[in-house]
Design goal:
319 residues, mainly alpha, 12 helices, 66% helix, 0% strand
């Protein structure tokens, strides 16, 4: 076997030892499927949403409102900045036919941009990379290069937009994941940063990116463990709510039994039929009980049963 291939394989194994959940990545599905087809079990693969791969354009979205239980985690926000809200930068037309002359001019613009960057003229570098992208919009490296400048300018959302475009053009390009990971670090999105930095190391390992990954992983894992703990507590609350409702039904039945013993059979039957006829008819219908359990477990599902008059009437009796 070629020595370089052996080295690449060893680097991948080292990354896997650091974080077994890397095999969840879409790009490594071929390796995961091969291992599973041989009956192998992959350590860490079943961890709940440990590092799900995200390649969607979700930069700039406002975070979901957290409950007091969710927000009690002490997050290390050192180095985190406020998100940039500039208008989206200009993108090239990837469907445009690019000639060799256009590619040459784009390469020259890229060299000029690198020179401007080295001299500290960040905005000039952005403008030159933009001109290069217009000439050759099919180059993922140009988008990744412009993203690197946006990161230096502390404009993470702009960098993420460029990296998203670069990863669309070349899903195996390490630079897009590297700079997007750094942009997520600026925003404090530790889980996403860990995903991207890990993928960057897989496609093109370097010590700088691996050092950033080691820095981000503890924060990402704390976030994951906290969210998992919250989900568990939320589930227990739902179960308790169901148990309370079942206890309520049990108390009704016990009260009916007591009334039956104290009153005459006819009086009890008359009162029961008048007060609980619809209730018992609903209980005898398994579809009503299944629907009730579904709504109790997830109240949002009540919309599925609004046209069911019998169920809605039953809900009114229970709640």
């Amino acid at each position: 076997m070629d020595a370089k291939n052996v080295g690449d394989l060893q680097a991948l194994l080292n990354l896997y030892k650091q974080d077994p959940t890397l095999l969840r990545a879409k790009q490594l599905s071929f390796l995961r499927d091969s291992l599973e087809s041989m009956g192998d079990t992959i350590s860490g693969f079943q961890r709940i949403e440990a590092f799900p791969l995200r390649l969607n354009k979700d930069e700039g979205k406002p975070p979901e409102q957290l409950t007091s239980e969710e927000s009690d985690l002490e997050v290390d926000d050192e180095g985190v900045i406020k998100p940039d809200d500039d208008d989206p930068q200009e993108m090239g037309d990837e469907n445009m036919e690019v000639t060799n002359d256009m590619k040459s001019k784009a390469d020259q613009k890229k060299e000029d941009a690198v020179a401007a960057l080295e001299s500290g003229e960040l905005q000039k570098a952005i403008d030159l990379f933009t001109e290069a992208i217009k000439l050759n919009p099919q180059s993922s490296l140009l988008y990744a290069s412009r993203a690197s400048v946006f990161v230096k300018m502390q404009k993470p959302n702009a960098a993420i937009r460029d990296c998203n475009k670069a990863s669309e053009l070349n899903p195996d390009g390490a630079q897009a994941y590297k700079w997007r990971g750094k942009a997520y670090m600026l925003l404090g999105h530790w889980e996403k940063a860990a995903e991207d930095l890990a993928l960057a190391c897989i496609w093109d390992y370097d010590e700088d990116t691996n050092a950033l990954l080691k820095e981000v992983q503890p924060r990402a894992l704390r976030m994951i463990e906290h969210h998992t703990k919250y989900k568990r507590k939320h589930t227990l609350k739902k179960i308790q709510k169901i148990q309370d409702t079942l206890n309520w039904i049990k108390n009704i039945l016990e009260e009916q039994d007591k009334t039956q013993r104290e009153e005459s059979t006819w009086q009890w039957m008359t009162r029961t039929c008048r007060r609980y006829f619809d209730f018992f008819m609903a209980i005898m219908d398994p579809r009503i009980i299944l629907a009730w359990l579904d709504v109790t477990w997830n109240p949002g599902n009540i919309s599925k049963y609004r046209d069911n008059h019998k169920f809605m009437k039953f809900i009114g009796q229970v709640d």
